[in-house]
Design a protein that fits this description.
The chain is built from 16 helices and 21 strands. Strand 1 and strand 2 form a beta hairpin.
Length: about 500
């Protein structure tokens, strides 16, 4: 039994904070009240600390980076007060895998790191049950993962029978506990996917009351049409819809603002973060036409005289000098590149910026991940405060490794968000907490989480703000077990592998 005494409780419903004691028994909250004489195995003095439900990160990449396997404690999440994460975004998930291949996450990870011994969503979730995780985890079904397994690397439309098989796999996966489906419509494999296909598949998910999460077809000049397309799916299927990592990219702020104004339906939300830097696979900086056909085909574009020059010209024309500031964050097997900018590498190599970029893509075998500063920060922060916004890191808890440069977003999204709320007060702290707890739980249909009340699971975060306004996470409980103790993450595996509707 754990007794938390005299904490300032923000319960996740949006109602004003109040002071009380909270008693935990097993994995649940057993009572809230005043218990001056209660004995417990662990007593925590909560005086001066906020006690809230554990935060829910609705869009993470811990599956894409395979860190569910390489860093199962997910310490960078619990240190932020996050107790539940969702994966399977941007069209790519770790299940279902019809033939056991992980090709659709090759843009994030070396897929040979792990031994894949599952096919269905049900089998995948059982593998995670067995291995254990430090946070609760739920997955979406990656549209591209399934589509590529069904029809291969081609870009053709689906036949009627393809579509029937596709729907059957989605239906089965939903029954086995997937939370919905995601698309990654700006990626090469999905750009040509027609509206009708998305609608039919999302319809299946909607029947299960699941979520449709979409990485938009175009976040720049095609932003508004992409938003209209998403609104249409949301309206015609009624599915809970979530626009992934929705950010104001430099040069497109006006369209972004216009999009915010029309994102009003009750079933439509977007997730975003308070940072100015994107983290992207390096090859997505190539011109669109040079990203099609799989890595082997792209390699020939980049190495064949003639087409290579066209790629160089296209990069210069569209990206110009800004590619110099792109910084390499990950490059498996090439640790000397980590932290270097394309400009620094260009000077070393005596090459132009576009040529250096191409060289790095080839050298790292398409596997480098880069930081790209392309987001209008103040607009991103304002968007985060709106009713339709959810908070996401769109990041992963990565192992502490000198070969990985961690972007701040991966380990500091939630503290940063709450620090902004606390210092600038654009919304109340209670409302901000509701957004990252019960609102997120409701969106994904999570039961008994996201609100501090008796009989709910004991996912809890205790924190305070320093006089300088920095958020300090002191204690975190995941299903009643202490995952952070006095600011230190423990190697705890008390997360639950979540199943939708179970
Ligand atoms: Zn995405």
């Amino acid at each position: 039994m754990v007794l938390i005494k005299s904490a300032q409780i923000i319960d996740g419903t949006g109602k004003p904070a109040y002071k009380a004691d909270v008693l935990l028994r097993g994995d649940k909250i057993s009572a809230i009240g005043t218990f001056p004489n209660k004995k417990a195995d662990i007593v925590i003095d909560g005086l001066g600390l906020f006690l809230t439900p554990g935060f829910i990160d609705v869009n993470t990449d811990s599956d894409h980076y395979l860190s569910l396997f390489t860093e199962p404690y997910q310490k960078d999440f619990v240190r932020q007060g996050v107790t539940t994460i969702f994966g399977g975004h941007c069209g790519s998930s770790l299940a279902p895998l019809l033939y056991g291949g992980l090709e659709s996450i090759r843009k994030w990870s070396d897929i040979n790191q792990i031994n894949v011994d599952w096919h269905s969503v049900g089998e995948f979730l059982k593998v995670l049950d067995r291995r254990g995780l430090g946070v609760n985890f739920g997955t979406l079904i990656g549209h591209s993962t399934l589509r590529r397994a069904l029809i291969g690397e081609g870009l053709r439309d689906l036949t009627i029978s393809d579509l029937e098989i596709f729907k059957k796999y989605i239906n089965d996966s939903m029954k086995e506990g997937a939370f919905g489906i995601s698309t990654g419509l700006s990626y090469a494999h999905s750009r040509q996917v027609p509206y009708s296909e998305i609608k039919e598949l999302v319809q299946v998910v909607a029947e299960h009351k699941g979520v449709y999460a979409t990485h938009l077809r175009n976040e720049k000049e095609g932003l508004l049409p992409s938003i209209y397309e998403t609104l249409k799916v949301a309206e015609e299927t009624g599915a809970e819809t979530l626009i992934s990592h929705f950010k104001p990219i430099y040069g497109y702020e006006r369209d972004y603002q216009a999009s915010l104004e029309i994102l009003t339906p009750a079933n439509v939300h977007y997730d975003t973060y308070p940072f100015d830097t994107s983290v992207i696979p390096i090859y997505t900086l190539l011109p669109d036409w040079a990203q099609v056909g799989g890595f082997e085909v792209i390699r020939t574009y980049l190495t064949t005289p003639g087409t290579r020059e066209n790629v160089v010209k296209a990069i210069s024309a569209t990206k110009g000098d800004e590619i110099g500031d792109i910084r390499i964050a990950q490059a498996p097997g090439f640790s000397h590149l980590i932290g270097k900018t394309i400009r620094e590498l260009a000077e070393n190599e005596g090459l132009s910026l576009p040529e250096t970029l191409i060289k790095m893509i080839l050298l790292t075998n398409f596997r480098a991940v880069v930081f790209y500063k392309n987001i209008a920060l103040s607009l991103a922060i304002a968007a985060l405060m709106r009713e339709q916004a959810m908070v996401s890191s769109n990041g992963a808890s990565l192992p502490d490794d000198p070969d990985i440069l961690k972007q701040e977003r991966f380990y500091n999204t939630f503290p940063k968000f709450l620090e902004v709320v606390n210092s600038q007060k654009p919304i109340s702290l209670e409302k901000a907490i509701k957004k990252i707890t019960s609102d997120a739980a409701k969106k994904f249909g999570l039961k008994q989480r996201g609100i501090i009340q008796a009989d709910n699971f004991a996912d809890l975060t205790m924190f305070s703000f320093t006089p300088a306004g920095k958020m300090k996470v002191d204690f975190v409980f995941v299903n009643g077990e202490m995952a952070v103790q006095e600011g230190e993450a423990r190697s705890s595996l008390s997360g639950t592998i979540l199943r939708h509707n179970h």
